[in-house]
């Protein structure tokens, strides 16, 4: 069966906390999950597949007789001011040209409206198209997701094994009950099959096929000029931070071998890609494996720049020195707060002292440091937030990202908010049943109201990035005119975030 895998365009994303602007401006990243699915289907060889990345698709630029919303109204036919962002018309054209029998759509809660719009387009083009959704949102809300009549099935959890089996069953006309890890409707009732076990042998999966997308269009504002892509070397995180919502991949840490990881890195280099963003939750969780990856890169003489995500309690000088020697240029830490009390409330399992040590050690090893902070967490007052901003200045990371704490669906933070009455009702379930663009995501309004949190959010960006000492330090480290232009563009993006007026949902 011909299948078209779609990452929907972000024309109507849910507004969370103004960090949506920072995320939008921070870069354009490939749909790695869909590329894994496509590679598995190609390996099986039974089902022709095409991948369509909405955010990277060239728009159709023509006048539109009916603008979709005030956010996306443009002379080019509803396309927002973002390079490469596709209109729904462009998606429709791709579906008509490929004529798939199955359309699979990546679905996040924050892009649910766009995902459903794409599903409706597919069904309107051909009522016989089987529409399947996958992703974190449908994993949490299968009943609500199948309440939409134009959705036929869901993949719940990892899809590399499940999707080929689902397509085989559809093609053969077999009952779908025999496919683990899916949900579907039968005679108006939602059926959930037995759960699919997590994939243990990640080395057995083929590499994502980046040739299926316009891989030259992806970039990171924190990276250097040149081609960039993303990489996943492990799945799962064993920690219990109350705000984390990555239920669909499980808590058990599963990792690829060092040789397998570096084989994929080498394949990327062969495509002309010079920068990798490693999207593991914690690349440094298994020190022995992380060192093995570094040693294998050095042994092969592979010239690649890469960046990782980490935790402040999983690094030491030996590991950081080896990362730098192997071409790792940037490390991201979830620092979250400048208060040990608030870190304890978040069940983060770290201390501010540990954060200071980790930032210092990374910079001594020659790594650039990005520190993430959350504003408005449980127990946090205005004084706590101001302390976090001061702590960010004291740490002196090369970059900082601030977000307003958002209780995501089904997280311990969200459930505790409902129990305490800090969150008035189950907003997320209501949104899953009836998604509206005007929906405003809940914050943790225990001590600070929404307007205060957004004002502190802007203050944090201004205090950190608009300091003369910071600007001078950054420009002193620039090595070329290209880097200067890149930094100037990044600075303008930060300036827009820091000075944006209004708040979420407006």
From TrEMBL:
UniProt KW Iron keyword: yes
Residues of the B12-binding domain: 17-177
InterPro entries according to UniProt: BchE-like, Cobalamin-bd, Elp3/MiaA/NifB-like_rSAM, Methyltransferase_Class_B, rSAM, rSAM_horseshoe, rSAM_sf
SMART domains tied to this protein: Elp3
GO molecular function term, any single one: 4 iron, 4 sulfur cluster binding
Stretches the record annotates as Disordered: 52-84
Cofactor: [4Fe-4S] cluster
Swiss-Prot/TrEMBL keywords: Iron, Iron-sulfur, Metal-binding, Methyltransferase, S-adenosyl-L-methionine, Transferase
Gene3D superfamilies to which the protein is assigned, alphabetical: Cobalamin-binding domain (3.40.50.280), tm_1862 like domain (3.80.30.20)
Pfam family, one: Radical_SAM
Taxonomic superkingdom: Bacteria
Residue ranges occupied by any Radical SAM core domain in the UniProt entry: 223-446
Entry annotated with the keyword Methyltransferase: yes
PANTHER family named in the record: ANAEROBIC MAGNESIUM-PROTOPORPHYRIN IX MONOMETHYL ESTER CYCLASE-RELATED, BLL1977 PROTEIN
Protein name: Radical SAM protein
Organism of derivation: Tectimicrobiota bacterium
